[in-house]
Amino acid sequence: MTIVDSGRSPVMKKIITVVGVLAASALGLAGQAQAGPAPMPNFKGKPLMAVYRTVDAGTRIDVRDVSGFKRHVLWPANWKACTQVPAAGAPVGAPVEIGVVKNAERCP
Q1: Which pLDDT score, from 0 to 100, does residue 4 have?
Q2: Could you tell me the pTM of the whole model?
């Protein structure tokens, strides 16, 4: 930002500069906010805890056992992701659905 010297005091010049910098910062942040959410990462084969750490806290995550045993996921650290909706690269929707199996098992 260039300020033309029009006889203003040094203090006034600093105030104008600070206001200009703040306005430019606000415009930059507004542009970032309009960019939208990040695309859905690929969670296949990753620990279920990585899903919880990565997805925004306001997003609902539905987890289900896809091994065929219909088990309940009580301790997420013991499970890994096999399937996901939405797919990797798609916009994150609510809810996120993750199909899981125990860490020692193979994904179907």
Answers
A1: 53
A2: 0.65
